[in-house]
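=== RUN LOG ===
request id: a7f3
mode: sequence -> structure
chains: 1
length: 286
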Amino acid sequence: MEIKKVGVVGAGVMGIGVGQSLAQNGMEAVLVDISEEVLDRARAEIRKNLRFQGMFQKDAKKEDPATVLGRIHFTTLLEDLGDVDFVVENVPEKWEIKSQIYPKIDAICPERAVFAVNTSCYSIPRVGALTRRPDRVIGMHFMNPVPLKPMVEAIRGHHTSEATIETARQFLRQMGKDFILVNDMPGFVSNRVLMLTINEAVYVLQDGVATPEQVDQLFKTCFGHKMGPLETADLIGLDTILYSIEVLHESYNDSKYRPCPLLKKMVDAGLHGRKNGKGFYDYGIS
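=== RESULT ===
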C-alpha cells in the first residue's frame, strides 16, 4: 500500500519535524494541534526551516517552500484524520494526554491506518490497548531534528503484526529513512541509555565537578560525539528529558533513574533549552 496521506498529531518540535519531512518527500500531511496559535508557530517554523535547510543539507532537493507547505493541512480538528493511511502521534510524554488521544483517533481513522507512537519511553502494548487495533500500533522514535536524521528507532509491541512492521518500513522509506527494530521495554535502547547519561551529566554539573562547556567538550573531543549530553538535553528540551526519566524511574522502580534535583529545578524555573531560549546554555531567544 502506497502511503499518500499521513496524520501528524501534535505540532511541537517533533511534530513540526515529521510534518516537514513528509511534505518534502511528496506526501500529504494533516498536522493537528489544540490551538491556531500553536499551528501558526508550527507553520512559521517549517517555513524558516525550509529556507535555511540548504545550508545544512547540500544534497537537499530544492523546492519552493510554498509548494512544500501546501502539502500540509494545519488543523485543530482530529476529525480531519478521517481518510489518512498512517498516523504519527507526537503529543507530550504525559500519559494523561496520550491516553485521551488514542480512543479518539481510533474511532476517527480508517481501519487500515497504522498508528506510530512517537515516544521515547512508553510501552507500545499499553498504548495499543487504548485502541481496537493493537496489531496496527508500532513504536516509532524519531530523532531530532527529524528532517536531518536518516534512522529511526522502531519498537515492536506484543501485538504488532508483521504486516504493520512492513507498512512502517515502507512509510519510512518514502520519507528517505530506515529503522532499527527493537523489542518493547520502557526506554527501549536509545533513551534507556541516553537518559541515564544526561541525568548523570546534570549531577556532575550540580556537584560542581565541571561546567556545561567542559562536560560537553569532553564527550565531543574524547569520544567523537557530535554533541555533548547537556547540549543534547537542550536540543530535546529539559521538560521532555525530565518526563522521560520520570517514566523510566516509575517503570523500573530503580533508583538509578532518579531525576537529578537540578534538572527538576531548571524545569520548574522554565529553563527548557532551545525551545524557549535558555537551558544549560543561553540561545538568545526572548
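=== NOTES ===
The first strand starts at residue 5 and ends at 9.
Residues 36-56 form the longest helix (21 residues).
=== END ===
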